[in-house]
Amino acid sequence: MAQTSILGRVSQLVRANINAILDDAEDPEKMLDQLVRDFTNNIAEAEDAVAQTIGNLRLIEDDAREARSASGEWLGKAKAASRRADQLRTEGNAKEADRFDELAKIALRRQLSYENQASTLETQVAAQTELADKLKDGLNKLRAKREDLVQKRDELVSRAKMAQAQSRVQATLQSVSVMDPTSEISRFEERIRKQEAQVRGREEVAASSLEEQFASLEDDAAEIDVETRLAALKSGG
User: Fold this and answer.
1) Residues 6+ apart with CB under 8 A from 153
2) How many structural domains does the chain have?
3) Within 10 A of 29 (CB to CB), how many other CB atoms are there?
4) Are residues 194 and 110 in the same domain?
5) Are residues 74 and 167 in the same domain?
């Protein structure tokens, strides 16, 4: 029956270990979306199956009641025919009494047929009731598990987005660490210090050149003084 096959699928889904399925999935979010769709589709099928099963159950219950009622009616006819046969036999009309006894037997056969039919139908009612109860129980469990899946999906998506954001922050921090601005500043500062040192070196070179020039001037002045004094000696001064 279609209902029993749906019940089998429902049982498999209810027993499914969702965490194990997600652990094996390459993309848990997509897997959850697919599972939610599967549960939704099976819930719709289970609802149809439950409705059909209950509908069939009500028809069988109606047939069982009618068979039980018919059995009672034919039993009443059999009793009436038997009483009439007994009455006629008391009156000495044996032939007519036998005819009514035959009618009573016919009624009893009908009564027995409807009684057997009612018994069979009542057995079917019990089986159909059990199946309907199982389907309704499975349907309720499917609905509850689907709600858990939806909540789990929302939680997973939220956690995934947070993890992605944290990953981006970590990547940014790593890139900042690789390109440490303090090291760049230190190198720039060192370059400036070198430039400043070169300037001081040039200043010192320039200063030493001026000192030499002044020293040369002083030497020239002393030589002139010597020449002057020599000239004075020669002139007898």
Assistant:
1) 29, 32, 33, 36
2) 2
3) 13
4) no
5) yes
pLDDT digits (tens, 9 = 90+) for 116-172: 999 999 999 999 999 888 888 888 888 888 888 788 777 777 766 776 677 777 766
User: What single-letter DSSP state applies at residue 26?
Assistant: S
Q: Give 211's Cβ-side CA count (13 Å radius).
A: 6
Q: Which two tokens stand for residue 42?
A: 């099976």
Q: What domain range is 226 assigned to?
A: 182-237
Q: Nearest Cα to 131, choosing from 56, 42, 64?
A: 56
Reading the block at residue 63, the tokens are 């047939």
Highest mean pLDDT among 6-15, 85-94, 182-191, 220-229: 85-94
Which two three-digit tokens encode residue 51? 């409705």
Same domain (yes/no): 200, 88: no
Dist CA 25 CA 34 (whole Å): 11
CB 32 within 8 A of CB 149: yes
Q: Which two tokens stand for residue 46?
A: 């289970």
Amino acid at 14: V
Structure confidence by residue, pLDDT tens digits, 25-63: 566 677 778 878 887 888 888 888 888 889 999 999 999
SS3 27: coil
> Per-residue confidence at 103, pLDDT binned at 50, 70, 90?
very high
In the structure encoding, which two tokens stand for residue 17, read together?
A: 């270990």
